[in-house]
Amino acid sequence: MNITQLLGLTVRLLVPTLLVALGGIFSFRIKVFPLGLEGYMLAGCFLAVTGTYLFGSPYLGMAFAAILVMLLALIFAFFVIELSVNPVICAFAINTIVAGMTRFLMIPVFGSSGRIYLDSALALPRFQVPIIKSIPIVADIFNNHSALVYVALLLPFVIQFVYYKTNYGLSLRATGAYEEAAVAVGISTRKVRYIALMTTGCLAGLGGAQLSLTANLFNVGMTDGRGFTALAAIVLSAGEPIRAFLGCILFGLCDALVLNLSSEGIPIQFLSMLPYILAILFAVMPPVIRKLSERTAFSKLQLRIRQNDPEILASRAFHHSVNSEE
Amino acid sequence: MKRTGTVAMALVLVCCFLLAACAAPAATPAPAPAAPAAQAAPDAPAEEPAKVWNIALCTIYPFDQAVWLTEMIEDMRKFDDENDNVNIKIVEVSETSQYEPKIRALAEQGIYDMIMTQFSGHVEATLAVAKDYPNIVFFNQDGMVPNIEQYPNVTEGRGGDRLSTGFLTGALAALMTKTGKVVFMGGKDIENVQMIAAGWQQGIKYVNPDVEEKFVIPDTFNDTTITREMATSLYQQGYDIIGVSASGANAGVVQAAAEFKGDLYAWVLPFESHFHEIADGHELASGVAHNGVMGVNAIKALMDGTLQMSIVKIYGFPDGVNEVPFCAGDAVPQDVQDRFAEILADVLDGKITITRDFHY
Question: Looking at residues B108-131, what average pLDDT do you find?
Fold first, then answer.
């Protein structure tokens, strides 16, 4: 197995999921569980191909997908915010409706069913990045990708900045943490929630666009559960952009490993478990490490007590005197 | 608020009932018009109305999920349009919990002469319903029905001679490879895919035992991104021909072949369908299986009373279900084409025995 190729493959595989996960974080942060990501992504796949087919440009196709999926998210937001519809039910409805609509619209839009192939002239252009292309190993991993790949790789850091260094980020976190308090200090939580839910749609639409325009086709059900993988990354990262990025790298690496190892003769039945095993490890490791470090600290404290550490003795004496005064 | 919600739900339910009541009964055949009694001559024999054959095809996948299924449905609809005495109703029976209820509901209507089901997923439900409706013929496609001889109204058709198609395409791959390394990519590790792979492996050995071959599984029938990346990786490793049986995900491999920018040439041999439109001249040949032809042949056999029950029939090359057309223009040299024709003739004459022995 060639490690450089493996990492290059990881980058290509992780990007659609990453864009969707980053979008989902906005919803997650305002306590709206983004269960509709799969539907948004599938809509993005279909609309990107439709836009490219109609306007003759993959970039316009991408914009078409982002805008229309954002409008779809606006409808979702209206139901959730104004009509107080349960977001989980609404998300299920979106997933089901999108799955059906993409199948149904294939016939009137393209005159075919199941799948549509775009002309190779409409493929998403790939770029040779000036500095990167001359660095031996880095070039194999990061060079010759579409523009959206580079945008996606930078986006976690941009979103991290937005969350922690801007007014909107503060309002978003406040709305998610304690909405009543945010309202009390004058934050328009309604506006914040609308923007967050629409951003989710926009980024998920772009994730779908990346998936379909890289393949240059639309295939019914082509997201194949990637929206749910993004959801897993969001939950594992607790809505932190950089951690979600790491989660997506983990899933992308798993996919790349599965592809490479299955051609090495390792049974696919075993390999298909790999992403989930790693996901569980990813979820379990932080609390385990925390517990272990707590236990270590406690053992150290006990040891110091046994060794009559003067600092501990002084502290105990202080507490004793305070208690006896009371 | 609660009250308004209840009223709204009640209204929706009422609307649903009204819609259901207004809907025309599905697929009920128009009754044959009775001859007016006054016009009939007293001693002329009454003309029997032409028999209308009602067939139901239950698809195990959504209609547009697999290329072969889309093509099968097109073929069967065409046959329906061309024959006034045939009505074919196509029903999606793709949810596991719906298998038996939907098949039983069709049987209960009492109008169908034959109910066609698909693959092993439908087998149990098919057999359960067939037992209760002995006057209806049940045709299962590729389900590997166990003990089929015990079911007098059940028959199985294999949509294509997978072993022979695999063998022929494998032989062609061995004749055409320049690097001496070829791969078979099966969508999932299932028996139908293994049968093609078994033929492919034996075809390669038959032509040139020195060719290095590999079997890989991307574990998807839908995800073109995965098959495309896997194929690109295999081409980079020096495998120059990939045979792929991954249904809708075949397109990913075809695209990888068309876009591969390495030093060696990259060929693809997709099964089930053609992919000329995106192959950009890199599709060497296709192991095509016309499942619709099989369905139509089975209906014709039912109509003329030759459809045999309690057996498994393989619909292959002689039935027009299978073919292996060359696709890449003049890429296949004449001597290879001649050799291929010899092997094809030997396979069809039964001079070559192809077994189901398969290795990973």
Answer: 95
